[in-house]
Amino acid sequence: FYSRDNEGSWFRSLFVHKVDPRKDAHSTLLSKKETSNLYKIQFHNVKPECLDAYNSLTEAVLPKLHLDEDYPCSLVGNWNTWYGEQDQAVHLWRFSGGYPALMDCMNKLKTNKEYLEFRKERSQMLLSRRNQMLLEFSFWNEPQPRAGPNIYELRTYKLKPGTMIEWGNNWARAIKYRQENQEAVGGFFSQIGELYVVHHLWAYKDLQSREETRNAAWRKRGWDENVYYT
Predict the structure, then answer these.
(1) Which of 43, 28, 27 is nearest to 189 (CA)?
(2) Engineered SS bond to 72: which of 101, 129, 190, 191, CB 3.0-4.6 Å?
(3) CATH number of the CATH domain containing 65
């Protein structure tokens, strides 16, 4: 995770109220009412021989945007993948103020010469890239910087159309079983890009801690039922 006070390594390793069904949009029912945060998650598939150069380049440029108060965005986290997709970088941004903040940031970047040069140089290092705009589930904590070192696990689910509310109902109950070790970082659902996609982000001290934490959840009555229905 990246904070304005962070020092040291910039990249990291990535490894309740009930929501009742209604006729409102998912974004109205499932997202937090007290905030207007919008998130963007970026997946960059990097040429294997360019990964170190990519990390150095992004570390030199992206934190400046995070620290610049003229840009209504903050860098929540940056990761390189351990398992799953290899030679991949993942970035998670928060836009405080929703879509107006996003558009303000995008318009300013169009005239930011350093950022335009950064994009040009970065393009030579990538095989492909994709992104999604996300909202956070109301029953998850807002992602915050935490003491490390940690490994992070991003679990992605592609839902059947029409089942997002049911998913929210089940996880609003299930999340209480995953709080003891503060492993729950954030929960999001897609708004723009590929739809009906959910991302759950978890943090663990190491792989052994991950195994112990997950096994402890299965010993709690009710966790298995909630997982079964999702």
Answers:
(1) 27
(2) 101
(3) 3.30.70.100
